[in-house]
Write a structure and sequence with these properties.
By secondary structure, the chain is mainly beta. It has a domain of about 55 residues. Helix content is about 10%, strand content about 35%. Strands 1-4 form a two-stranded antiparallel ribbon. The longest helix is centred in the C-terminal third of the chain and has 6 residues. The radius of gyration is 19 Å and the shape is extended. The protein starts with about 20 loop residues before the first strand and ends with a helix. About 5% of the residues are buried. Bound molecules: zinc ion.
């Protein structure tokens, strides 16, 4: 019985410059919800923050800023 090797995932790579480490995302119409806890001295502490985009979400290469939105679906499935 042989153990199967863990599969090495294909890295998302910018077809323009070859960058495979830095990417950024721009989201339109973002609603940000922030939950606060009030402390006994009247100050507030952020408990949690969430954001939801109602518009387009675009993915860009962090190096050359090429629009990589065609990879966005795959990108969003690989965020852990
Ligand atoms: Zn690039």
């Amino acid at each position: 019985m042989s153990l199967s090797q863990p599969k090495v995932a294909n890295l998302l790579t910018c077809p323009h410059c070859g960058n495979d480490t830095e990417f950024f995302e721009i989201a339109d119409d973002v609603i940000t919800t922030t939950h606060y806890i009030q402390n006994s001295d009247g100050s507030f502490t952020i408990e949690s923050k969430s954001s939801q985009s109602l518009g387009d979400v675009k993915l860009f290469c962090g190096n050359c800023e090429e629009d990589l939105s065609s990879f966005h679906q795959r990108f969003s499935e690989m965020i852990f």
